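User: Predict the structure for this protein chain, please.
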Amino acid sequence: AAVRVDAAGKGDDFLRFCNFYVAYHVVGLLAYTGVRPVNDSFEQARHFDLEDGFAFVNDKVVDDEHEGRPIPVRRSLIEWVKNDYPHHLRQVALMLRDAAPGLAEAIEELAYAKKKGKLPFFFHLEQTEDGIQWASVSEQSIRELGLFDWPLPLNFFRHRLATGLRKLGAD
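Assistant: Here is the predicted structure, written as structure tokens:
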């Protein structure tokens, strides 16, 4: 998949590259954390604690008192969220400035964490009749990209992580 992301980055389909880049990293976060692959699994930049290495996720709502939880995130992924992804977002905003100025502005706000924003933290881009729009990242949208060559559902990581932790004696 990394080779496909790199190849898309060198190609002439900007939206494809953006979608590959986001899908690749979201799947990495899902695999590392065991978070359920719900729409917009990592909703907002402010849900990442960049200092202590945690993310707040809300991938299963049981009741009003149990909405989300903090999970540890590997330092290299935190650094990507802190540095590389905002840089990517600024580049995307720059590329979209003429074609989709409103979307470019919303992406730039997200990149600089100016406010809560109109977009989820991770999103795909799609060409519609109305121009370039953002779309939620979901298991289906990732699968439809054809980036990953495996027949397994994305919640495979969650089950594998849980099984592995149980075998190690974690509760």
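Helices lie at 2-10, 14-33, 75-96, 101-111, 139-145, 156-167.
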